[in-house]
């Protein structure tokens, strides 16, 4: 929480109009105001996160829209956290379906431009915000369902791994997994822990060390996703699964979720400063910066 407060200096212009939200209509009107404020602040009209009410009462659809592949820029992460926080505090919502509004990917994870060629203070801020997002998602009182309609690699798995349920589109391009080791880096323990909680120790050992990316059938078999459906049914399936989850009284479900997840979340809360220090000193190494630069250059070349 302290870190969210720390972030407020950055995001205060976005938050100022968001205090106290008596009803949904008011919210949507305020959102429009916020967008103008943000547009001024970031000098763009882009809206990176779109929140819409769904056809089911109490369920919001949150669409990730940081083109082209929803990589986690600092601006995108900040906007995501603000939207989640607002949904969390809005009593009209009990569940969120998170999906991508980018045709090419669900999420590509960490934006390498945020961790390459910048200074330690920037890396520190970036990693804190990423941890904040993880904590907000992992301990959310809402039911979170990931409707994974595109590839989802490395840090892109953050949202699915912290959700309550994962639905993957049945398309060979829709690979999912933590492939960090292939880039010569290791996934942080707070990515490893939820993976272990979901697919078990041995399967995690295997998947993490080899940096495996699972196509849909294998993803289902190993249990990193709960359901695989044709791409055009991802959204409707998410809504019908959500209805099952919402049939359970919130209070009992929330207590149970917290009971199961708190020990894992506490590890991050307790070790987050050390984790930041480790990350910053690792990423600042010349050898790592060099390999990131080479990887970025390769990505750029492929694009041209
Ligand atoms: C991880 O997987 C994604 C999706 O296939 C791919 O774009 C990315 O290049 C991979 N990263 C590494 C380092 O292999």
TrEMBL record:
<comment type="function">
    <text>Key enzyme of fatty acid beta-oxidation. Able to isomerize both 3-cis (3Z) and 3-trans (3E) double bonds into the 2-trans (2E) form in a range of enoyl-CoA species, with a preference for (3Z)-enoyl-CoAs over (3E)-enoyl-CoAs. The catalytic efficiency of this enzyme is not affected by the fatty acyl chain length.</text>
</comment>
<keyword id="KW-0413">Isomerase</keyword>
<keyword id="KW-0809">Transit peptide</keyword>
<dbReference type="Pfam" id="PF00378">
    <property type="entry name" value="ECH_1"/>
</dbReference>
<dbReference type="InterPro" id="IPR001753">
    <property type="entry name" value="Enoyl-CoA_hydra/iso"/>
</dbReference>
<keyword id="KW-0732">Signal</keyword>
<feature type="signal peptide">
    <location>
        <begin position="1"/>
        <end position="19"/>
    </location>
</feature>
<keyword id="KW-0007">Acetylation</keyword>
<keyword id="KW-0276">Fatty acid metabolism</keyword>
<dbReference type="InterPro" id="IPR029045">
    <property type="entry name" value="ClpP/crotonase-like_dom_sf"/>
</dbReference>
<dbReference type="GO" id="GO:0005759">
    <property type="term" value="C:mitochondrial matrix"/>
</dbReference>
<comment type="similarity">
    <text>Belongs to the enoyl-CoA hydratase/isomerase family.</text>
</comment>
<comment type="subunit">
    <text>Homotrimer.</text>
</comment>
<keyword id="KW-0496">Mitochondrion</keyword>
<protein>
    <recommendedName>
        <fullName>Enoyl-CoA delta isomerase 1, mitochondrial</fullName>
        <ecNumber>5.3.3.8</ecNumber>
    </recommendedName>
</protein>
<dbReference type="GO" id="GO:0006635">
    <property type="term" value="P:fatty acid beta-oxidation"/>
</dbReference>
<comment type="pathway">
    <text>Lipid metabolism; fatty acid beta-oxidation.</text>
</comment>
<keyword id="KW-0443">Lipid metabolism</keyword>
<dbReference type="GO" id="GO:0004165">
    <property type="term" value="F:delta(3)-delta(2)-enoyl-CoA isomerase activity"/>
</dbReference>
<dbReference type="InterPro" id="IPR018376">
    <property type="entry name" value="Enoyl-CoA_hyd/isom_CS"/>
</dbReference>
